Amino acid sequence: xxxxxxxxxxxxxxxxxxxxxxxxxxxxxxxxxxxxxxxxxxxxxxxxxxxxxxxxxxxxxxxxxxxxxxxxxxxxxxxxxxxxxxxxxxxxxxxxxxxxxxxxxxxxxxxxxxxxxxxxxxxxxxxxxxxxxxxxxxxxxxxxxxxxxxxxxxxxxxxxxxxxxxxxxxxxxxxxxxxxxxxxxxxxxxxxx
Length: 193
Prior knowledge:
Elements: H1 2-33, H2 42-64, H3 72-104, H4 109-133, H5 144-160, H6 170-192
Helix pairs in contact: 1-2, 1-3, 2-3, 4-5, 4-6, 5-6
């Protein structure tokens, strides 16, 4: 597992550098698109010839959704950051599963299944929260799965947990309940063995 940990460290650093460079490029592209940089400057010409064709798919999607083309660089950056987080999370999850199998063999299978289910529920909860920040529809094919698998425990909690002004803290309570429930199940299972 040491080689995988070293690989993950290198991957995290590489992805951080790539996202930081992308942030600089997105900032420059946004400055050109909003005419904060002279559109006839060499930087603007370079951005239009090299970066704008790469941003074109995101720009088309944003315009179809009713947004402004100038926000394409920021949405590209958001997609890159979220994609990076998802990739690292998936690789860490796979590492944990492989380590659990190597450490305990098939006898750890029930623990791995329970951990996997709770990990998916926590991830779906995070997806719900992030999608609500961007005003995405819960019926969107990209988001619908998260609402489907979490609504069964979010609906009753919403009736119990009060809001703080306009802020709904139910997802935070649900997240901590999921963590507590998973740990309690493991404690009970290990105590009975």
